[in-house]
Amino acid sequence: MAVHSHVFHPYAGARTSPRRAWMVVARYALSEVLALKKTIALLVLAAFPLLGGAVVIYLHHNLEAIKILAIPLQAMVPIDNRFFYYILLVQCYIAFGLTAAIGARVLVNDLRDNALPLYLSRPLTRVEYVLGKSAAIAFLTSLVTWVPSLLLFFLQGSLDRAWLAANWWIGPAIFFGAWTAIPLFALVCLAVAAVLRRRAAAEAAFVALFIVVPLIAGIVNQFLHMQWWIRFFLPAVFESMWTPLFRLQQSNGLSATGAFTSLAVALVLAGTVLLKRVRAWEIVR
Amino acid sequence: MDTPTPVITLEGFGVKLGKRWVLQELNAELKGRSIGLLGPNGAGKTTLINTLLGFHGVDAGRARMLGHDVAQDRKLLAAQVGYMPERDAFVAGMTGIHFVRLMGELAGLPSQVALERAHEALFFVGLGEARYRAVDTYSQGMKQMAKLAQALVHGPRLLFLDEPTNGLDPGARQRMLDLVKTIRDRGETKIVLSSHLLKDVETVCDEVVVLKAGRIATVCDLEAERRANQSFLELELRGGNGHFAEAAAQLGCECLVHSKRRLKLLLPQGVQVQQLYAIAAEQGVQIRRLQARRDSLEDIFLKAMEERDGSP
Q1: Out of A273, B56, B118, B177, which could bridge B100 as a Cys pair, Cβ 3.0 to 4.6 Å?
Q2: B154/A123 Cβ within 8 A
Q3: Whether complex ipTM tops 0.85
């Protein structure tokens, strides 16, 4: 029918499953953030450490190149579990930066302009709405964490099959390690945005929550000789969760159980805050 | 002949927000093509709409829309319902077409169909030329129209309009009401319109629910009222000895005396207006003005508000 006829008519055609409505939310949120220059800039930035990793792997399998570049063999970083641990750690920091830069936007725009009643009057629950928004952030952070890290892993594996057979478990470690960080970043970022409802404030608060607050707590507790603050210190929490996955020696005082408990508490808190704040009815200020 | 499925059925329906009952003991079966929700501020109109849309839980009784239970079949109903909220509601940074398409897809339209219908809906509401502009740059009237377009895009069977003429100038208000009437007259989409403006409700609706302090004060079939009050007359008199009303009552007229000079009469079947002129001539009364009118919605509303008991 031509749009120029200016008539209204009901729709009797096929409909998609209501179970897929969260994917629509995710797709539109993703297209919104991918239209931003800073998202593209951060994705490009995220490629540099991986390129570095790829070069190291290439050199390990190309003695002629090492000779030409006159690199002493002792100076070569070994390609092992520790190598992939650090690759993932660096990529997770970039994922943190990416979430801080674009995560709040996907929710704040809807809250600021009162779009939630429109979303939630459709066949979409609050949980599915949050799932859709989280999925958009998770997709982007996956692009800079486990996806490229696994590509590096398979690059190394394809160049040395014996290494792959001996170190196959590093692949799952990368995948599961990244998935401890991805939902944490996504849900905490959305929860902060839901509470503050302003993009700049939410971005600043997200960074403060993960860096400034634990640092201040750390400094205070160094003087008081208390160790509880380490549960809030992100690098220590990740280290404690990942060292068993990567079969490395743990160096901080936080047990893996303690770290996973911290993660679970943070996820539950963020989820609770989100479900409290993401509501359809209109709040008259 | 099959009786049509009621649009909305409320059975002992109640909603509690916090510890306070905002709606209680609502019982009604609404079958109109276009149902008006009236009531003073805080009467519970928006809460009723929000609960029917599934934003609040049902705390007492049950509610059915289009034959489906509101609490149990929420997703099924959500795909068949369109909602235009009272306040500004859009996604910042999106163009009109992008915004309406998103809402169509969320309601279950396949992506390509949603795009086509978004174009149609925006042309229908008169935003065809502005559909590639960001919604947040629209004027107030355009935002209202964009909200109507997103509510219509998926071809709902039931359309909730919460104060659709809010903030519109007279021209835009008339356009909005004309659009609503166009949708109503097609007969495939039922409408629930909540408004403070009695004139809007009177223009568009054929059934009205008046809410008062969370209860139904009255349910009124405006069409039936219009038919029943065809012989209702307002007279303005001059002169005479004040016995005109008694003489009219002897003719069988139900007579409401406002004052000596102003009367309201309900003419029974068979009594002609000429007979009133004859009485007036006998009594030496001049009829300065004679106007046939029906009870306006304002009369119905005010009568409902004066009722002490909130139940219908």
Answers
A1: B118
A2: no
A3: yes
